[in-house]
Amino acid sequence: MARGRGRWLLPTRLLNVCLAALCRGGSLAAAESVLVDAIRLGLPPDVVTYNTLLAAHCRAAGLEAGLAVMGRMREAGVEPDAVTYNSLIAGAARRGLPIHALDLFDEMLRAGIAPDSWSYNPLMHCLFRSGHPEDAYRVFADMAEKGIAPCDTTYNTLLDGMFRAGYAMNAYRMFRYLQRAGLPVSIVTYNTMINGLCSSGKVGYARMVLRELGRTDHAPNIITYTAVMKCCFKYGRFEQGLDTFLSLLDRGYISDVYPYCTVISALVKKGRLGEANNYCDLMLQNGSRLDSVCYNTLIHMRCQEGKLDDAFELVSMMEDGGLESDEYTFAILVNGLCKMGHIEAAEKQLFYMEIKGMQSNVVAYNCLVDALCKFQEVDAAIRLLQCMKLKDDFTYTSLVHGLCRVGRYHMASKFLRICLREGNNVLASAKRAVIAGLRSSGFKNDLRKVRSVKPKRNKIKHHGKLQTSPLVGERYRLSMCTKPPLTGVCLALDFVGKIDWV
DNA sequence: TTAGGGTTAG
Known about the structure:
- By secondary structure, the chain is mainly alpha-helical.
- Helix content is 70%, strand content 0%.
- The chain contains 27 helices and no strands.
- Residues 1-6, 462-467, 479-488 and 498-502 have low confidence and may be disordered.
- The chain binds one DNA strand through helix 3, helix 5, helix 7, helix 9 and helix 11.
- Residues 59-191 form the PROP1-like PPR domain.
């Protein structure tokens, strides 16, 4: 090209600004045609041009689309940089693909590109969310060993991950440490804490953190209020939760679907279906794009109304709109079908779920186990339980109650002992039913065995997902931390390091 | 470019 570099410097920057604006506005096709025009005019796109497009494609269409842009940039002689890989790792993380994210991270290291905290943050986030906290911790340790300073997002991701992995008090102690050490604590940190503490049942601590937030300069936002509402609904302060929602609505603070879904699902749970429908209409009038969580909420509402045809129509609408049914959708449908007595149709849904290879199907299975027990088909429930890869407290509570209901106390006590030995538990009412049944039918031996069984320490389960083998380790270059070099990190690592990883 | 809030079962 005859044109000198200096002459094109400004136009390339302008091209990038223009592309970024188009991508932000969701006009990807327009951005692509601007790029075609620019190349035709002899204007050279640079790494920023491609990174802008790559991030937008990744967000809109997923990782594959992002990788295609990386292919195009290489063909054009533009080499990817840290930003390219960070966007791809984030793309993989958003889609819940930890192996892909780790592969990209590894590829980045092999290419000699130095990762920064934006390479690590989505990787950690994705590993925590996909039920691999021990790997997320290794990633954090690796970051510390390489001397990369964590940013506020790193700490927030770590806190959120610790809550998800079941280590609420470690997260709480780390939050206090961040405050003492003068490390970044923002409204995001407060929201993570309030939400995590509420979800793990530490309502008193949550209230304390909320009061503290009121004394700081950080302004609570819609995320804070949604977390508070959810906590009210969960812990018996229904009207207070609803009042919070209504006052936010009055003041015009509700601009997205999150608070709507929270309140609709709470109303459905209470059986207040009329009000749930009203807020559903408001949410639709609001004009926000419905995502899969919104659809799941609406499908659940239709199922609870007994309108299964409408529920399935919503599933079709959702899929036609390019959204996929997830494990929630299936669990909701299986539950809805069971409640209406359509056991065979529910079994069919479970079968689809298996074919789709969905990781977490324990809730859907539990719904069917419970329904079979309620219809006094306990032998079928036992057969189903034997097919389940993962069983939890819900599974055994339904079965034990079901067996007691039909007077099979010996069998109920057998499953209760298996359950306790596996590190699971049942509701106190199920345990009481077994003991009362054994006593009244004179099964003294079983009674003694049930009383003497020592429950195994409960394993941490990550959102009902099966624990899989570590993803980081032999296969990847990430190494365990030996001597963390940064002061702030040392102590943060200490909080995670004390966790007894299962 | 990157993080935080909303959906299911006993």
